[in-house]
Amino acid sequence: MTLIATQSLTKTYGGRVTALSDLTVTVEPGVVGLVGANGAGKSTFIKILLGLLAPTRGRASVLGLDPTTDAAAVRARVGYMPEHDCLPPDLSAAEFVTHLGRMSGLPKTVARERASEALRHVGLYEERYRQIGGYSTGMKQRVKLAQALVHDPDLLLLDEPTNGLDPAGRDAMLALIQRIGAEFGISVVVCSHLLGEVERICDALVAIDGGRLLRSDHISAMTSATDVLAVEVSEGIDQLAARLTELALPVRRDGRLLLVPLADDQTYDSILRAVAELDLPLHRLDQRRHRVAELFAPRETASVH
Amino acid sequence: MSTETTTPAPAGVIHDIGYQRYAGARLGRRYVAGSLYVHGLRTAFGFGRSAKAKIFPWLIVAIVAVVAAGLAAVRSQIGQVVLTYAQFADAMSWLVIFFVAVVAPELVSRDLRSGVLPLYFSRPLRRADYALAKLAALVTAAWLLLGAPQLLMFAGAAFTTDKGMGGVWDELLDLLPGLAYAAIWALVFASVALLVASLTGKRAFAAGGIVAVFLMTTPIVGVLMVMPSTTVNRLAGLASPSSLVQGVGVWLFEEWLVTDTAAGIGIGRFGPVYGAAALLLIAACVGLLLARYRKVASA
Predict the structure, then answer these.
(1) Is B128 an interface residue toward A (CB < 8 Å)?
(2) Interstrand relation of A78-81 and A212-218 (parallel, antiparallel or unpaired)
(3) What residue numbers bound the domain in which B92 lies?
(4) Cβ atoms within 10 Å, residue B281
(5) What is the pLDDT of residues A185-244, one digit of tens each?
(6) What is the pLDDT of residues A188-205, one digit of tens each?
(7) What is the ipTM of this complex?
(8) What residues in A contact B20, CB-CB < 8 Å?
(9) Does residue A260 sit in the same domain as residue A118?
(10) CB contact A54 to B (< 8 Å)
(11) Which of A18, B6, B141, B245 is most exposed, with the fewest beta carbons within 10 Å of its own?
(12) Which of A12, A43, A86 to probe by mutation at the B interface, max B CB count within 10 Å?
């Protein structure tokens, strides 16, 4: 079943500011990264999926339902973690998540049980009776995730879940999201402006920029095709570059490295033979996975003026 | 053929049961709105909140309870009715102003401030249901504040009556208009207060705004009351929510409200105008409240 499908989705604010422009994308279940710079339209996209905003043109479907006409049915099956602060400081996490569980239609006792469970899964079991106002940023992010999880949704929409977290907190949050996708069997859409983060945990990536779709694909398709070999020699780097060019290999200089696209095993042999023939001291020859970040990097930086 | 059998887990072993999907009931709109209403009513009196949040509402409850107990005691001892039930609601109305000024911001401004609304509105709960559940909670809380002490007075009178069941019945007929009058107070005050509170996330501003709306309009009534035209005098009460409700009370419950000792406000034959104005005020406040919540926290 298709998780999310949109057709020429367009959203303009006041007829002038275009947040989404003619976005057509299909997303399959799994952990999906929605990446783009700040202001690329990620939050607008999420809000349309939740039925909080009506699209100006085009259509969207979430779990086979139309969020503009069937918002209640969509929201019953979706969990949403907003980007900004959304927690009352004077309630305990247990009370707050229980209350929101009831707001999702869970009966009283079930809401209490599932709130405890959700908080345990995000790693807040011991602290759950303390007031949220005294929590650290990392703990608050976990409460936000727990409230999105409490009613057992089929789809989680997470808007910048690692915002404000330190590196260890980021890793923990990403591991948790990966676990939700893999073990809990819940599809997740993770919004982020940090590609390096989401590509580690996602099955598929959707990249948008200026409200337009840049690319949507499986993560494997994005990374495998772009593997390169990095060659480092301590001297004679120009000689080697010239020799490799003669061998019809598209060489690129990157500082003290030569980058050669990895076509097949022949590439290894050609490089090694060239190095041996020129009698150069080889430092390093390794396969470098082309980070997805680099795919989008030029356009991303271009959009952040 | 599968020969797999399920072996029962040995007792006394702690398992990490992992994540459990939920296949049980998901209740509908009425349950969700009802839960929010009960939650709001509890919040109004500080239940499920810190001790600090309980101080103010219970201080006001204590005042009205002491007054009601005093009235009941005076009546049982010297047999004099100092205030009728309806007059009690009238006399305590200024406390209701402070009560709604503190509780309405607790109900709505707090949610605006902490940014929790996106969490509500990303759930099946409708925006209008949110606003109406909060309003119903505040109306109920204000009505309980004026109504419960009347029950206390009623209990005092009913147990000390010397006319048997007939006396209790007469007492009940006096009580009901008092409760109805309290309901009008609660409706008007709660809808005005909640609308004002829904405009700001700062609780102190909201409380100040609510008190201002109720108290700043009173001088206008005073000025209109001394104008040379009788018609203007009679319609002066329309200018302020408090005198508006009093006017409606005099129109509907004159028998219980206007006695030898208390004149009530003069409305002449304009009673229906006061009634219509009160309805219009409530409708306008609810309409604006719903309009406010159609927009808030959507972008």
Answers:
(1) no
(2) unpaired
(3) 29-295
(4) 18
(5) 899 999 988 887 888 889 999 988 888 888 888 877 766 555 778 888 888 888 888 888
(6) 999 988 887 888 889 999
(7) 0.85
(8) 117
(9) no
(10) no
(11) B6
(12) A86
